[in-house]
Amino acid sequence: MTELKNDRFLRALMRQPVDVTPVWMMRQAGRYLPEYRESRARAGDFMGLCMNPEMACEVTMQPLARYPLDAAILFSDILTIPDAMGQGLYFETGEGPRFRKRIDTAADIDALPIPDPEDDLGYVMNAVRTIRKELNGSVPLIGFSGSPWTLATYMVEGGSSKDFRKTKAMLYDQPEAMHRLLDKLAQSVTSYLNGQIKAGAQAVQIFDTWGGNLSSDAYQKFSLAYMRKIVSGLIREHEGRRVPVILFTKNGGLWLESIADAGADALGLDWTMDMGVARSRVGSKVALQGNMDPSVLYASPSAIRAEVARILASYGKGNGHVFNLGHGITPEVDPAHAGAFIEAVHELSAVYHDPEAIVG
Description:
This protein has 15 helices and eleven strands. By secondary structure, it is an alpha/beta fold.
């Protein structure tokens, strides 16, 4: 086991002392980088990139070659699980993800298998192993999955949706069927994330992208309940150290206390939530990750720096903060602005931490 040279990300998730606030970006390996666009062109398409472990490693490492990030995140897609369940994932140019099969009936749900991470999703596990070897202990590797509710919306709608009409109709008309689908997905996500941890992921994040589109009651029953089930089934110790779990519900600020009680180590926040208010609401129960509006990266480096300073001040002194964007970085961002963001976090955050804290 290679010793980590920089473990401030893992330490912050465990609310332990760090020298500066660690930072990484959701979608940090992505289309804003010209080197990523070149790699994707060579791969032929997005899934060709995801399903080739060497190329997935190549693009995972690209932002780390540019920026002093404190974590790498596996390059993959949240929809690998539904694809492995036989739904037939493909990407339509300009339209986003699509499935050749759609979940419409209880019989469709009953026919779904629970994918085996090594047999059915072995290309992801091989990518994790390849990336860990390439990182050589420089920074930790984050694994991830979509939440059951978020995966279910794509499977029932057959792709992206603006109103989730089919998914919500099933939720209210056939709640038992929806619960069966979510339970199968929770089993699949648990197995998938545990496979990533065994392969070398040192922290995992569950992306609940569409949980915030539910009513408060429905969120508790159809989204959070299944994330709680996943968290309870995850491997939490591996390679001699804790494997932190991050839950991220976009537009989930209403339910922070409930999410903090779900058993994870950290909560991801989108940009609609004030960091200081969130900290006061959850106390020391969990670490917080976030939460700059990704659109700030379109502004000047001085404006980016000012917004970083504001968020750091809002969180205040002490441990338990991982800096990130409130959602993924967008393709039109100037890579130099991403660099200014990361530099500002490291430079401006030192005053909020104990100067005696040691990384490594």
